[in-house]
Amino acid sequence: MTKKSQYMSNPVKDSEDLCKKADLLRAKSAFKEAVPDYLNSILIERNNAKSYYGLGICYKHMENYSKAIRYLEKAAELDENSYETFFELGVCHLLEGIPCGAIKNFVRAIQINPENPDAILQLGISHELCEEYDMALMIYQKLIENSPDYIRAYDHKSSLLMKMERYKEASFVLNRIMKLDPTYHKAYVGIGICFDKLGKKADAQRYYRKFLLNKPESAQADFVKTRMQKLRGQKTPTNVLSLV
């Protein structure tokens, strides 16, 4: 008896049972092990959107993004109102290096659930990766206005402003981050770099020192120490590479 024929007594129920089994495996991060059960579920019931979704997520975690996109697109075709499906489709396009292809999926996710800031942030990131910087900045700003406590929006906006060499504006955004979360020490480095680029050496050193006081062992500590030595006019050790 084939696998397909043994499930024919109640195909919809059997498909759902296999999907649930695969879901449990996926929840345990057993992505490779979950794939056959999702495939068998689809073999029995071709219109099982949940199985296509689960299969797509497994392939995403297995870093086979082209397959993930294929199965998530089928899930989206079967369920046009699933926020999770369109969000994950957008993420997989980003991971596959197709940011412009991600945009339509994040737009659809936002249409389904406009209150969730994650899809809005990813939409901004997608436009940024497509080098549509003005659009990305507008999206980050709208997200800040709608979700004023969502620090990731400030973080991405400040990083993009620094990329565009708009250091004064970036420093204002980073200051707002520090007011929201004084323990977000990455902001100290960002403000230090902004002042550094603006030629305000004393201010730059002040923020670099604040960062080192709180994060002396961080991955950025060597960079900060190197910049402080240069700003003080000291010779930089030959074994440390300056990143600025």
The residue fraction in helices comes out at over 70%
Number of DSSP strands? 0
Structural class: mainly alpha
CATH topology of the domain at 148-244: Serine Threonine Protein Phosphatase 5, Tetratricopeptide repeat
Overall CATH architecture of the domain at 148-244: Alpha Horseshoe
Q: Strand-and-helix sequence, N→C?
A: HHHHHHHHHHHHH
Estimate what percentage of residues fall within beta strands: under 5%
The CATH C-level class name of the domain at 148-244: Mainly Alpha
* Largest β-sheet summary: none
Straight-line distance between termini: 68 Å
Per CATH, the superfamily of the domain at 148-244 is: Tetratricopeptide repeat domain
**Uncertain segments:** 235-244
Write the layout of secondary structure elements.
Elements: H1 11-27, H2 31-44, H3 49-61, H4 65-78, H5 83-95, H6 99-112, H7 117-129, H8 133-146, H9 151-163, H10 167-180, H11 186-197, H12 201-214, H13 221-231
Notes on the protein architecture:
Helix 1 packs antiparallel against helix 2, helix 4 packs antiparallel against helix 5 and helix 8 runs antiparallel to helix 9. This protein is elongated. The longest helix is centred in the first third of the chain and has 17 residues. It has a domain of 97 residues: Serine Threonine Protein Phosphatase 5, Tetratricopeptide repeat (Alpha Horseshoe), CATH 1.25.40. With 244 residues, the chain is mostly helical. It contains 13 helices and no strands. It starts with 10 loop residues before the first helix and ends in a 13-residue tail after the last helix.
